[in-house]
Amino acid sequence: MADGAGATAIPTQHLFAGPPVDGREVLLAGSRCVACDAADFPARERCAVCGGSTEAAPFGRAGVVRHVTAVLHSAPGSLREAPYVVGLAEFADVGLAVLGVLAGATAVGDVELPTTVDTVATRLGDDSLTYSFAIRAGGR
Amino acid sequence: MNGVFVAGVGIHPFGRFPATVSQLGAAAAQAAVADASVGMDEVDMTFVANVGGDMSTGQMMIGEFSAAGGPVITVEAACASSGSALRLGWELIRSGAAEVVLCVGAEKAPRGFIANGGFEPWQIAGGLGVHPIYFGIWADELLRETDATAEDLAQVSVKNHRHGALNPNAMFRDEVTVEQVLASRMVCPPLTLLELCAPNEGAAAAVLTSEAVARRNGRPLVELKAVSIVSRGATDWFSPSVAGPIGATRPSARAARLAYETAGIGPEDLDLVECQDTDSASELYAYRDLGLCAAGDEAKLLRSGATALGGRLPVNSSGGLLSKGEPLGASGLGQLHELVVQLRGEAGERQVDRARVGAGQVIGAGYNASVMVVAAAGGAR
């Protein structure tokens, strides 16, 4: 995969629906149950609600963040540099609310809510890529 | 169905101790057995609730003080482990399969954030693998979606620390002011250090019996009317899942409905509640989940003084987890200890007037929730 994601120390390829490039937009690999329509992220082979089979449901555009918190001191094992802001983004097209770090924000006061976000790839440490939420210009 | 009674309770204080988890649990278990006036040779089944222990935690714990040879089973369900042990014991007595069941909860949790919380390596590496993030998000939601304020969150901590100052088994026994709570270190905004409970060590135990055995010790009779347990429902969201449905529900609301239905008791019948105040906002959400007020009226209920000692419906008269600390596997049995002491009228300075009916609520990672209802003999008025 592009940008070294195939060599990550911690497996994260399953998070992405396309090749992740640090700082660029990328869709996340959600799944949707063909039987009951329940969505999940990361994608599952079997629906966590009814056990049915699932199909790919990429998402990541125009998530709405209504609630945030922050991590002021990194926890053991975290490759994120604190402080950083965590938001719960609602992606209405798949019906999922997803936790993620808001790129560039270091304090909850930096973020005017509600705000609109898109998912981007973020490099962590040496070899790991994960996702973040990039706030759209203008915020909404 | 047979009635299920709490014939005896015991507790080891919550805090930090040199003792092993086996010794902590054994101390509480022995106290409960003595309180119930039963012998270990009469115990048909023992359930030990513990989250972080080693192999054969339950057997090693009971082996500290008894070789009576009866069955011992260890149960784990995160912060709802005690609820699971109690449910199993309640079922056995109710069905008549057992006459005496010992339930013990004990924990020696490491300092700081809870490790092994079920998070995937990518969540931990990406900075999303800590439980307080979830509590911070929910607290933020409460402040934005209801009229609750940062000061209300602080007042929950002030109330529970005031209660805990009266409880010799609590870890933090100093009262705090709103100013101190708000000025304490910010952990996950809007939650400050004094608005989050500290995982710690401790143990609590209860002996569940038939009515005949419960009458033996001549103590006031306390009936365990219901213990519900639920796991993940289709619309629930809880840690450690990174994603859930939009507008997700909380498992403990469902657990409360089930417990009330089984007990034939409603929230309007309650005289006191012990709930899982993992953080200040969690206590306010418990008011909603347990039906103590309408959704959105949580802060109003708090401000009315109803949930403080001296109020109409004291919540966490023990000091709650904010004051006691949270020994994960023991927290639910710690709640039952407080409820029984209160219903017996033996709570001393923190006694709730005319306490006849109480409820306890725990909720744990991995979508576990449990609600129990207890009543003094004679039940709801």
Structure description:
The complex is a heterodimer of chains A (140) and B (381). Chain A starts with 27 loop residues before the first strand and ends in a 5-residue tail after the last strand. In chain A, strand 1 and strand 2 form a beta hairpin. In chain A, the strands form two sheets. In chain A, strands 6-5-4-7-8 form a five-stranded antiparallel sheet, with no helix packed on it. Chain A is built from no helices and eight strands. By secondary structure, chain A is mainly β. Chain A is globular. Chain A has strands at residues 28-33, 39-40, 54-59, 63-71, 84-91, 96-101, 115-124, 128-135. In chain A, 0% of the residues lie in helices and 39% in strands. Chain B has 13 helices and twelve strands. Chain B has helices at residues 21-36, 57-62, 81-95, 121-125, 132-145, 150-164, 178-183, 211-214, 251-263, 280-289, 298-303, 320-324, 331-343, and strands spanning 5-15, 45-49, 72-75, 100-108, 186-188, 191-192, 201-209, 222-230, 243-245, 272-274, 357-364, 368-376. A five-stranded mixed sheet of chain B has the order 1-7-4-2-3. A four-stranded mixed sheet of chain B has the order 8-12-11-10. In chain B, helix 5 crosses helix 10 and helix 6 (150-164) packs across helix 10 (280-289). The two termini of chain B are 22 Å apart. The chains are: A mainly beta (140), B alpha/beta (381).
What would you call the structural class of chain A?
mainly beta
Strand/helix succession of chain B: EHEHEHEHHHHEEEHEEHEHHHHEE
* Proportion of strand residues of chain B: 15-25%
Question: N-to-C terminal Cα separation of chain A, in Å?
Answer: 32 Å
